[in-house]
Design goal:
This protein is mostly helical. 53% of the residues lie in helices and 4% in strands. It is built from ten helices and three strands; from the N terminus they run βααββαααααααα. It has helices at residues 5-12, 18-38, 82-85, 93-113, 126-135, 146-158, 165-177, 186-194, 199-207, 213-224, and strands spanning 3-4, 56-58, 64-66. Strands 1-2-3 form a three-stranded antiparallel β-sheet. A hairpin with a 5-residue loop joins strand 2 and strand 3. The longest helix is centred in the N-terminal third of the chain and has 21 residues, at 18-38. The two termini are 24 Å apart.
């Protein structure tokens, strides 16, 4: 179960906040680092996806993953590194890594600008804006690495009072999926069963309750919540 960044912001109807950008950046960079540990040096281009608002997946655990499924109808050119658009050959894992750094940077700029009126500037702190600009450099050798991004995120966490990165990702997931701990709440199941009872019988149950307001209120809530 997961939520794309695009889905979360569509539900919100507004942009990512600065701490959310830091959080998604940190969790995404950690996922990329782990991914590239598994990629064969003999085939550095084998990863095969472009990070975009539709392929960046937020997980209920607070982590981030990526996919290339169900995004074929999206125009991804704005999120694609210039060297890929120009069909340049990529000779090293470092070059491939920076393709995804570029896409991630553009994706987070998209998130920061989502539903913001054109007359209003994007509100980003200098440190975060500097990191994102470094991620979106057109020239590959000038682009920052995953390690640089992770170091910047670590410095931000040390020097601020922000919550753990995973907690911001969890909150974004809940915008779409709700509170996952209550996907199958017992009161809902009880109320579903009780809707099968005749309404007269349900009313008789309420009448026969002891005259304790809190008890009566709770049962009314359970019976008619659905």
């Amino acid at each position: 179960m997961h939520v794309s960044l695009a889905e979360a912001l569509e539900v919100r109807g507004g942009p990512l906040q600065e701490e959310e950008i830091w959080a998604v950046l940190n969790q995404s960079a950690e996922s990329l680092q782990e991914l590239f540990r598994k990629v064969s040096l003999a085939d550095p281009a084998a990863v095969g996806f472009i990070i975009s608002p539709w392929s960046l997946l937020l997980l209920p655990s607070g982590s981030v993953s990526f996919t290339d499924e169900n995004i074929s109808n999206q125009d991804l050119r704005a999120f694609t590194a210039p060297e890929v658009l120009q069909n340049q050959s990529l000779s090293s894992l470092s070059d491939v890594e920076k393709i995804y750094i570029y896409s991630l940077g553009m994706t987070l700029y998209w998130g920061a600008d989502h539903e913001v009126p054109q007359s209003q500037p994007i509100k980003l702190g200098d440190h975060l804006n500097s990191i994102l600009l470094g991620m979106c450099e057109d020239v590959i050798y000038a682009r920052v690495s995953v390690r640089t991004v992770l170091d910047a995120c670590s410095a931000h966490i040390r020097n601020s009072n922000c919550a753990p990165s995973f907690s911001y990702v969890k909150h974004l997931v809940k915008l779409v999926l709700g509170n996952l701990s209550g996907v199958f709440p017992k009161p809902s199941l009880l109320s579903l069963l009780l809707t099968l009872l005749p309404s007269v019988y349900r009313k008789s149950m309420l009448v026969s309750l002891p005259d304790f307001p809190k008890t009566r209120t709770l049962l009314v809530f359970l019976l008619f919540w659905m």
